[in-house]
Amino acid sequence: MILELCIFFFFVALVYSSAGFGGGSSYLALMALWGIDFQLMKSTALLCNVAVVAGGVYHFYKNGHLPLKKAWQLSLVSVPLAFVGSYLPLKQQTFFLLLGVALTLAAVFMCYRLFFEKSYTVKEAGSEHPVRYGIIGGAIGLLSGMTGIGGGIYLAPVLRLGKYDTAKNIAGLSSCFILVNSLSGLLGQAAKREIIFQPAFAGPLLLSVIIGGQLGARLSAAVLKPRWVEAATAVLILYAGVRMLAR
């Protein structure tokens, strides 16, 4: 089981990191299909998110694709709400219901990004409505804390629809957003003493996503365009989400 998950986690990290994502939705979907305990799922997915996007944040910032002012505006409300969401007591049935909805929505957003998203021109400076995007970021942060998803898969399409910044900068912003919210979610779990780390289980998975994430972060969109892999991932997430809701 661990070997199969390691292979899947590696490819998920490789694909997601190239777009600034951590892959939390896919990690959760895979672990749900393998029947992993829900508390272990949340902790492991957030740890894998941090392992993947930490390197991505560095590379995006180094290459000038992480506008810090916008990153701060998006994260100001989301970080404390991610902590609150992670701290809230959730029964297993409620968690899987929320996760089913979250995964289904993530699949829809992925399909939009893959098949319907087109090029656009960025809005003029000063027209970004930071309060509006701060509230949106807060709502996504709350959901990410409750489910163990970093939130970038939701944030990026919203920023694209709002013409918030260039595609590269949005990838950098999403990467930073996932990092700070995943850390906040882990702190929330630690505060209520429900963070679970099993070295024999999480260790190999973390190594797999670190390797995949570092490779993906170094490959530009011009080099790595695995749309068929992303499409397959969207189908996987949709299947896992619908199956949870059906139960």
From TrEMBL:
Compartment annotation: Cell membrane; Membrane
Topology relative to the membrane: Multi-pass membrane protein
Transmembrane segments: 43-61, 73-90, 96-115, 135-157, 169-188, 195-216, 228-246
Keywords from the UniProt entry: Cell membrane, Membrane, Transmembrane, Transmembrane helix
Protein name, UniProt field: Probable membrane transporter protein
InterPro entries: TM_pro_TauE-like, TSUP/Inactive_protease-like
Superkingdom assignment: Bacteria
Family statement: Belongs to the 4-toluene sulfonate uptake permease (TSUP) (TC 2.A.102) family.
Pfam families in alphabetical order: TauE
